[in-house]
Amino acid sequence: MPHVTIKHFPASLTDAQEADLVAAVTEAIRAAFGCSAEVVSIATEEIPSEEWHSRVYVPEILRRDHLLRKTPDY
Q1: Catalytic amino acids?
Q2: How confident is the model at residue 56 (pLDDT cuts 50, 70, 90)?
Q3: What's the mean pLDDT in 7-16?
Q4: How far is the CA of 27 from the CAs of 15, 56, 67, 73, in angstroms?
Q5: What is the DSSP code string of 13-69?
Q6: Calpha distance 34→25 (Å, rounded)
């Protein structure tokens, strides 16, 4: 049962933009894992920019680099 969490700076997405994002990620996960879209769950979490380094970059990018499949260029 794939679960994806998208952490991002606060952004004003319209309902349509959020629906498009969820649909695109759902389809990519479904195609990659060969599963039904019904078993995919997706969460979004806004992280204030001033907290990004401590809450995301260090614990999830820097310390878990062995799990990354795409690294950021910042």
Answers
A1: 2
A2: very high
A3: 95
A4: 18, 25, 22, 26
A5: --HHHHHHHHHHHHHHHHHHHT--GGG-EEEEEE--GGGHIIIIIIIIIITTGGG-S
A6: 14
